[in-house]
Amino acid sequence: MNQLDVRGRVAVVTGGVSGIGLAIARRLLTGGAKVSLWDRNAGDLAATAPELGAHAATVDVRDYDQVERARDATLAALGRIDILVTSAGITGPNAPVAEYPLDGWRDVLDINLTGTFHCARAAVPAMTAAGYGRIVAIASVAGKEGNPNAAAYSASKAGVIALVKSLGKELATTGVRVNCVTPAAVETPMFAQMTPEHIAYMKSRIPMNRFGTVDEIAALVAWLCTEECSFSTAAVFDLSGGRSTY
Description:
It is a single chain. By secondary structure, the protein is of the alpha/beta class. The chain contains eight helices and seven strands, in the order βαβαβαβαβααβααβ. It has helices spanning 19-30, 42-52, 64-78, 102-130, 142-145, 151-170, 196-204, 214-224, and strands spanning 10-14, 34-39, 55-58, 83-86, 133-138, 176-183, 235-239. Helix 4 links the parallel strand 4 and strand 5. Helix 1 (19-30) crosses helix 8 (214-224), helix 3 runs parallel beside helix 4 (102-130) and helix 4 packs parallel to helix 6.
């Protein structure tokens, strides 16, 4: 594994106790960063953070007051926030729009899109005051193409992409860079939220004929968190096994 230098930086990773978020946290720790894991699963957080040597904050990203408290706790414990990776997310139900559960739609949008907005809104002032920051949002190729029977997930990730483009342009003349990654399907515990048919559909769309790995996602995200990522902002980086070719 090549080393990506984030020594001396403080990183927040939401959804950091499993899947992509956990892999990113491990990679940033390996690169020398201090990491604060934000997650709503208090039990897994209590087990994972000490194992990694990370700070922990229990937070539901749907609730802005909780996000602000997590930010303040992180600043008190670690001194600043240089990096924010928004990985918290859910897939939601697989169903056609005409049958899509209304509560499911709201929950997916609240966590995936509004949660990303909440975390960015809370972290940006500290970053702009310091003159430095890296924000990386985990979006999805579904936000670019749309997946059938996954309207809420696709719409939420399209919103994340647009949010990143907007915020990146807002902060372009500061030292804060804002980017997102758009993976194709990656085998994580989130697969348990999907139907077998939907999983098979996603794999059929990938020319490499395999799912991505969390470590492949973490490698790119870690580079986007470094000082070397200095001229990319408001950008979208694909990790799709050949699915995205535009």
